[in-house]
Amino acid sequence: MADTWDNVTIPEFNSLLQMDPYLKQYEKDFRRRYGLFEKRLFLLEEAEGGFDQFTRSYRTFGVNRMADNRLVLREWAPAAEALFLTGDFNGWDNFSHPYEKKEFGKWELCLPPKHDKSPAIEHNTKLKVVVHTKKGERLYRISPWAKYAIQTEKQVIYDWVHWDPPQPYLHIHPRPKKPQSLRIYESHVGIASPDPKVASYTNFTTNVLPRIKDLGYNCIQLMAVMEHAYYASFGYQVTSFFAASSRYGTPEELKQLIDTAHSLDIVVLLDVVHSHASQNTEDGLNSFDGSDSCFFHSPPRGEHALWGSRLFNYSSWEVLRFLLSNLRWWMEEYRFDGFRFDGVTSMMYHHHGIGSMFSGDYSEYFGLQVDEDSLVYLMTANHVLHTLYPDCITIAEILKELADEAWDMGNIVYTLTNRRYGENCIAYAESHDQSLVGDKSLAFWLMDKEMYTNMSSLIPMTPVIDRGIQLHKMIRLLTHALGGEGYLNFMGNEFGHPEWLDFPRKGNNESYHYARRQYNLLDTDHLRYRQLYDFDRDMNRTEDKYGWLAAPPAFVSAKHEGDKVIVFERGNVLFLLNFHPTRSQTNYRVAVASPGKYTIKLDSDEVQYGGHGRLDHNTEFFTEPQPFNERDNSMLVYIPCRTALILGNDDTESCY
């Protein structure tokens, strides 16, 4: 079999090997994987008339209304003995509407329109699929293709609701162009309000989108949108893959949110969970046809030991149909602009990352521990998306983080720059993971309980608040500028959100106290949260002007442990960071590539950002042709302690 892969041609593979010769020893693995991927695409073209049609299977599965108001219903339930449809439309008769058995485990039912020509099932009415198993059981299930599910008060199980509004929301605004620099605002709709309750899509549209625009973020990554019965799972235990979560409102209101974001020139990514599924049976995918497999591998392979969830069988034709169509559905119906794929490490390895320490050695990416079925699924999904939507953004788990206080200058630089050349990374100082219960936000790590009492600008800063505010700005700017080709911030952390995240659950008496974002802190002018917000806004706006995220990786000319200083160039600007707690650097020589006059473009020490205002912004710094730290030019600068500066070359600024 090995010989068959020798003829596989991988596009641009020689260029990859030139850039990274260490990959040469894994050439056979690359060829086999690419061969499996090509075989998958070939089968799609042969069997289903191409992946364009195959990935629109939501038009043929679930419930679909035809032009004459006939309803055609189709399900895949290979282990079922019989299928029936019941619901409000037939008075919950379990036997009056049987599905007809088709080949390959499929079932079909056609419902003619009523006498008045309206559809047999009305919009916003409840349905169930009744599954009869070979063991004689009768099971009540939600269609895997259900587009809406609700939880009625005092009920644990979600209900499938037929969603076919007479006046569906029509998108007005075109998708924005894919941004050159990706500045991502990671968001959760349900916590996007100071109120102790589940916030709505409409609240996000009205109150949060304007803030995101003002802050200079050009991309929103929406978490917990795919329906999940357990709110405290943070959206990662999906029960209905085609349904937008009803706890925040209706599908039409989510469409309006995305359309409004597009009108503000903001792209929207969906945090998509295709790595596993909830083990719920009555309102999830698990045991849909009564078997222990169907969409998943049979146990033990089909169960995630730590997450208590089910794992997809990515080699199954119908699972491929379901997942690829799911991506297409979110792109077409809701007009998302791309995806962040969650749990990719779990997908890629048979061990799911459990008990495995990753060193970064290439041998870890090859060999028997890799699940090549899921790898080929990810390759196929990426290919389909980028072929159909050339501007689509796909992100596979976000990689870089810097949230501790190991202030070794070399360590910090290494952590942020240690990535494969040519491989785009998203960097973050903290994501939602750092804010979850058991872990605190960066600001709370730095300032802790003093945030409750000492954040007023009407009183002098305590040493703890002073240190925390200065380091919060510096860490975020350093990560923004040095860490990758995109930058991510979790909502609220831009202004130093206190405390942590904790969703209502039995362990906290179902409290919403920590399941909210206190944007109201910004509306009190004398609180220092506003100063951190203003710095974050101006940091993003400065990036928008100079585009360092879209520029090649930085050239680091200094990482001086004794001075606690980091100096680097990226995107035609110079970054100077002095982490020293007490020592300002006067007449400090720094290296630059381009000669000329430099002026201050961003200064974390400005009073409006909670700084001490120690720099005169009329100061001009002139280079000398004196080589220094591997650069032809250098200049003398003043960097106050605990300050980050961006200097721009006024002589070349017209080129930006």
UniProtKB/TrEMBL annotation:
EC number: 2.4.1.18
Keywords, comma-separated and alphabetical: Glycosyltransferase, Transferase
GO molecular function annotations of the record: 1,4-alpha-glucan branching enzyme activity; cation binding; hydrolase activity, hydrolyzing O-glycosyl compounds
Keyword hit for Lipid metabolism: no
Reactions catalysed, as given in the entry: Transfers a segment of a (1->4)-alpha-D-glucan chain to a primary hydroxy group in a similar glucan chain
Active-site residues, Swiss-Prot/TrEMBL: D342 (nucleophile), E397 (proton donor)
Catalytic EC class: transferase
GO BP terms, alphabetized: glycogen biosynthetic process; nervous system development
UniProt GO cellular component terms: cytoplasm
Domain Glycosyl hydrolase family 13 catalytic: 155-528
SMART domains noted in UniProt: Aamy
Family that this chain belongs to: Belongs to the glycosyl hydrolase 13 family. GlgB subfamily.
PANTHER family: 1,4-ALPHA-GLUCAN-BRANCHING ENZYME
Name of protein: 1,4-alpha-glucan branching enzyme
Lineage per the UniProt record: Eukaryota, Metazoa, Chordata, Craniata, Vertebrata
